[in-house]
Amino acid sequence: MNSLLEQLKISVSQALVAAFGEELANVDPLVAVASNPKFGDYQSNVALPLAKQLKLAPRAIAEKIIAKLEVDQICQKPEIAGAGFINFTIKPDYLVTQLSLIQADQRLGIEPVPSPQKVIVDFSSPNIAKEMHVGHLRSTIIGDAIANVLEFRGHDVLRLNHVGDWGTQFGMLIAYLKEAYPEALTTADVLDLGDLVSLYKKAKIRFDQDEEFKETARNEVVKLQAGNSESRHAWQLLCEQSRREFQVIYDLLDIKITERGESFYNPFLADIVAELDQQGLLQEDAGAKCIFLEGFTNKAGEPLPLIVQKSDGGYNYATTDLAALKYRIEQDNAERIIYVTDVGQSNHFAAVFQVAKKAGILPEKVEVVHVPFGLVLGEDGKKLKTRSGETIKLKELLDEAIIQARNDLESRLQEEGREETEEFINQVAQTVGISAVKYADLSQNRTTDYKFSYSKMLALQGNTAPYLLYAYVRVQGISRKGEIDFEKLGTHTKIVLAESTELILAKHILQLGEIIQEVERELLPNRLCLYIYELSQKFNQFYESCPILQVEEPSRTSRLILADLTARTIKLGLSLLGISVVERM
């Protein structure tokens, strides 16, 4: 089922061709949801930019378009407003037909894409021997939400965790552990991840200050890269220990992801450098092999190189990312590759993509997208850290959200005089706590920084997960109170849209498909968050003004259907954001 927006776009495009000829066949019809309800439900601005080309006034163009429009089944007669805007108001009968169609469909009328793509979403990417911290939060949940939407649309999605599991840091850590805790390099679980992090910091200090230790660490890197069995065994123990700790967080966040770390691409790095060299792209600079790029300069205006092989023969992130890109295109057959990392890596990816195009690694048919995001700030507007200045561990942040959600729930139960089981309290606290953290992040435009506040994200009012969950729970409460089985309402009952709040709610429910397609295209999950929030608001206004269980038929069943469709839409929308619902709060 095409969304209302798609149907109107098709109709306007056809009318443009019918009125002015085939040369306008590829013109964007510029149909969008009306910015103000007084202008109807949808609006097309296409007549305005065509004025110069067609040598006609926009209103005259709009009149000719309307004369050729075939939208009688969908809309009331389109109207022209202002300089030449075409306004569309959807007929209530058409809304009723569409609602009846989606009521019988588990996907709420949203069909998969006709031509699915192989898509890779690269997200999360913690470093081995380091604890996941708040900086990994955004990549993990934004990447998961994008992957969910693309999968729902029918794309073949490979979720990749490009873990930092290779490089100089392992030489430092192995060298230090050989002195301090040699058993940690031969036996599993001698140290926990927190101890490893602490020891890594000490190793880094030694590396920066002690030339002899630095040389030892570099030798350990060489042995590791050369495949020394003792070094590889130690490295694998460190990786396994970190993976188990990461998995605790992924389980808590309900994230599914396939690990393919930097080490996976290590065998391909020399070939990448050779390929770039054969194409004459490499230049030597201070002993390092580099590529000088267009548009990349330092503060002095001098060209900045992308280093692909260091003067000591080692490789870096750029080399690994080029090898990964080549593998993903040639072996994984990816058609769209999405990298979810912080905004600070924007220049890095722009440089890598430019080199990949020059080298023929990245063909025109493959789309690569960097999805940048801003910082997580404290309520003081500064980078979120502990009182001692340390980066906040992600596990501690999530645990605290669950604790605060539990405290809020227990206070509310006490006020209401309700008694609930420990199992109920634990389940609701965990769902609400984790949902609140996810939604607070996803509801922001990902390109900006946002302030992290437990009190705001757990509030029952405003654009928060608890507010949306409460709207869903309200519908389940109607079901329990009226002993209604929503699945047995049937599709034979005619939906009645007599009240303004019924009409407004119905129109909004039918916009879900448009929003999901927008997120698929723009990779901005906050658009879906805003849609669900506005849906919850419109449902609450409908709930307050339209009695449901107490009203006579056919309005009673009609309103029950509207309530059920709202709940199903909220549940589906939240599931795409990686958020679970609860049946009671």
Describe the overall structure.
This protein has 20 helices and 14 strands. With 585 residues, it is of the alpha/beta class. Among the domains are: 4-90, Gyrase A, domain 2 (2-Layer Sandwich), CATH 3.30.1360; 168-259, no CATH class; 394-576, Isoleucyl-tRNA Synthetase, Domain 1 (Orthogonal Bundle), CATH 1.10.730.10. The strands form 4 sheets. The protein has a 5-stranded parallel β-sheet, with helices on both faces. Strand 5 (118-122), helix 5 and strand 6 form a beta-alpha-beta unit. The longest helix is centred in the middle third of the chain and has 25 residues, at 229-253.
Largest sheet: 5 strands, parallel
Would you count the extended β strands for me?
14
Tell me which CATH architecture of the domain at 394-576 applies here: Orthogonal Bundle
Structural category: alpha/beta
Intertermini distance? 35 Å
Percent of residues in helices: 40-55%
Overall spatial form? globular
Strand content: 5-15%
* Helix count, DSSP H or I runs of 4 or more residues: 20
Mean pLDDT: 93
Spatial strand sequence of the major β-sheet? 7-6-5-11-12
CATH superfamily of the domain at 394-576: Isoleucyl-tRNA Synthetase, Domain 1
Which stretches are poorly predicted, pLDDT < 50 over at least 5 residues? Answer: none
**Topology-level CATH name of the domain at 394-576:** Isoleucyl-tRNA Synthetase, Domain 1
What is the level 1 CATH name of the domain at 394-576? Mainly Alpha
Radius of gyration: 28 Å
